[in-house]
């Protein structure tokens, strides 16, 4: 996908995103993705040689191998959103083998999915693409609906089925967030002992974060702080939703903030908002991957391209895109995965 096609997909916003070069936080202050990222960042950390080896397995696989960028296929929606709701658009993915095939054919660095999906196919595919086991979920079958992440298996079980890494979600700001932080921190400690890197879905969840019909669960200041908590419990990669607004702390009037957060460190430009998220990942020492979001049909490809450009130009590490790929025919899913990967391979799209 060349530069002109990207502009056509983005429409009027294309020039604004691709031409933006006045970020509040300068790129020189960041630790940016590169071929030497693991050596430059993790060799001075407490991560053991097994963790380093498995990090390398993630970064050296797929279409983006040896670039410092990641493209991960995450499919845990069968639990998080019910299997029927998630797979009805494409029943092919009730079969876990097709999930793994999509990740392989789509050139992904890894596939992230559930204990059951990976366990049932482990001997056939664990040596063909890195597995990321998602260890906790919001099971969604309780009525009335609650929002809580609970463990679905053990770290030893993830290791036994051949996982390269584990993934977990914390709903920061939720009623049960304190318990989730403790559980996930303990799980990450054990995973690191066994040599598995840890990816944290740093989501914020609280109905009170919505005010005047604006949802500040996707505000740069609130999600940035969630990222900071995530790297504090030693996540090796942070997954976060792309920020859509800012000023959650000041609008809702909670936590603590400083006016410079909104003037000197960020603006309302999408790249600045995302860069603030990167800054909260130890200035990029821990890679930020943004999520692809729900599928909305014909707009999926341009929206995915937009997210990839924002993430890359902000200093992020890649995309973790699921529903936009698997809720469509296999060929189209592969096309959208390859399109966003091409953004990260395109040297004309530079860090702002």
From TrEMBL:
Q: What class of enzyme is it?
A: lyase
Q: Pfam families under this entry?
A: DeoC
Q: Name one GO molecular function term.
A: fructose-bisphosphate aldolase activity
| Listed Gene3D superfamilies | Aldolase class I
Q: Which CDD domains match?
A: DhnA (cd00958)
Q: Which UniProt keywords apply?
A: Lyase, Schiff base
**What are its E.C. numbers?**
4.1.2.13
* InterPro entries linked to this entry: Aldolase_TIM (IPR013785), DeoC/FbaB/LacD_aldolase (IPR002915), DeoC/FbaB_aldolase (IPR050456), FbaB-like (IPR041720)
Q: Which NCBIfam families match?
A: PRK09250.1-4
**Family from the record:** Belongs to the DeoC/FbaB aldolase family. FbaB subfamily.
Protein name, please?
fructose-bisphosphate aldolase
